[in-house]
Amino acid sequence: MEYLGYFASIIIGLSLGLIGGGGSILTIPILVYLFKIEPELATSYSLFIVGITALFGCFRHYKMGNLQIKSALYFAVPSVFSILIIREVIFPKIAATLFSIASYQVSKNFLIMVVFSILMIASAISMISKTSTKIKTTKVNYTQLGIIGFVVGIVTGFLGAGGGFLIIPALLFFANLPMKQAVGTSLLIIFINSSIGFGGDLYIGTQIDYPFLLTITCFAFLGMIIGTRLSKNIDGSKLKPIFGWFVLVMGIYIITKEIFF
After folding, report:
1. Whole-model pTM?
2. Quick one: 114 exposed, middle or buried, by C-beta within 10 A (0-12, 13-18, 19+)?
3. Cβ(152)–Cβ(166) under 8 Å?
4. Which one of 96, 102, 111, 169 has the fewest CB atoms closer than 10 angstroms to its CB?
5. Spatial separation of the C-alpha atoms in residues 245 and 126, rounded to whole Å
6. 138-194 pLDDT per residue, tens
């Protein structure tokens, strides 16, 4: 299972490089089901893996002229605020066991995985939707960018997910960016959000297995290199529906496994 996990880690970077999102959607299931990491700790690992991998992809997109710094900052600043609230104030106060139904205990880890599976299904629908990349605005709407940034920060803080499936449509609709610039800019936002979230975890004393974490990150790096190079010749928007169906199947599998098995 570990060898499969290392191979799957390459897909994390490949997804980020090609379509600017989706990598974090894969990271949590890979860590939990293939490497047997506890879900709460997996959210911390995910922040590091996705954040560092996104930084590498962001640098490569910068050289290709695909970054819009102003739009990224308007989005990222509210995200940082909500991430810090979730990771340092709310998340540590959630009890390990939330409540019991008969003899069945609903745990914090169960909540993380069920909410994450719902996020995966929503992400998949967004990627499968044929209209998700066709709507354009006539001018940049920074207010709506900031509001969505705050919401994405909540998602990132609670689930350790970069929120690329929310960031890309926001940049397309409200920042009026073409697809390739939306991909590059989303990577910068994901890096900022994930770095702040992981830094908050270190601040509250989360124990990290750095050799393992760096190994997974290296495999994700490899995928990012491949994905970024392929993005020069492949339209990432055409790949999103295919990836979306894959994520949808995984989301349904996770929610079924957590609830019924």
Report:
1. 0.77
2. middle
3. yes
4. 102
5. 10
6. 567 788 888 888 988 888 888 777 666 678 777 877 788 887 788 788 888 888 888
